[in-house]
Structure formats: C-alpha cells, structure tokens
Amino acid sequence: MNIRFIDLTIFMAYLVFMLGIGLYFLKKNKSKGDYYLGSAEKVCRMPDSRRQDADVL
User: Fold this and answer.
1) What confidence tens digit (pLDDT) does each residue in 10-39 have?
2) What's the rounded Cα separation, in Å, for the pair 39 and 30?
3) Cα–chain-centroid distance for residue 51?
4) Which residue among 3, 19, 25, 28 has its CA within the 20 to 30 Å range from the CA of 42?
5) Where do the structural domains in the chain lie, given as residue ranges?
6) Comparing 56 with 8, which gets the higher pLDDT?
7) How far apart are CA 48 and CA 54, in angstroms?
8) Angle at 17 between CA 39 and CA 28, to 5 degrees
9) DSSP H helical segments within the chain, as ranges?
C-alpha cells in the first residue's frame, strides 16, 4: 500500500480540522442539557400576537 505525500497531507489536514470543530463545540456546551437538547431554550420565540394569528389559520 503506497500512500502519496499529498494524500497523507490532505488526510491529516482533515483530521486536524475535524478535531478543531469538535473542540470548539466541546467548549461551547455548558451542561449536559446543552448537549442533549441542543440548547433548545435559546431558540428564538414568536411574539404572542403572531402566535394568535397563526392559530386562526
């Protein structure tokens, strides 16, 4: 099995990039709830007036 230098370089760059993304999101999660719920409490909510209009339809 002969792996060329460019192939190995691209593969290593990909691994480092994926590790960087993993570490970024590791630090972004503050609790188990953030991990399991995807920070659902931070979702933008609709104002009540728009919600009532949506119920009419």
Assistant:
1) 999 999 999 999 999 888 877 777 767 765
2) 9
3) 28
4) 19
5) 5-56
6) 8
7) 10
8) 20
9) 5-28, 32-37, 48-56
